[in-house]
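Sequence only, no structure available. Ideas?
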Amino acid sequence: MTTLDRLAAEKYLLLTTFRKDGRAVATPVWAVRDGDALAVWTAANSGKVKRIRRSGEVTVAPCDVRGRPHGEPVPGHATLCDPAGTRRVRGLIKQKYRLIGRLSLLGSRLRRGEGGTVGVRVTLAG
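Reply:
I predicted one. Tokens follow.
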């Protein structure tokens, strides 16, 4: 089993982005496999989106719902998805997380609108 397969099978991943001064900011997120990368879905105006837009340098590690890691972090590069890519990520989230995924996506769409969230693709280093 590859590192990508192991991470994609986890329920939560700790996505760590980096501020301009190098400080790490870690957030537990849902993640799905999207071809040769991992994909996550997040609010379009979140801090992690701003940090990814600036550099794209990230690490991902398996974690629990509270963000406590239970594996080694893996370096990667994150890019923001276009609207079509974001729709694809939403569909993958619905498949993996079933009812709770559908309800979360619906609640988010009602709160933020269709453009209020964005998909993020993480390509693992190596």
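The first helix runs from residue 3 to 9.
Hope that gets you unstuck.
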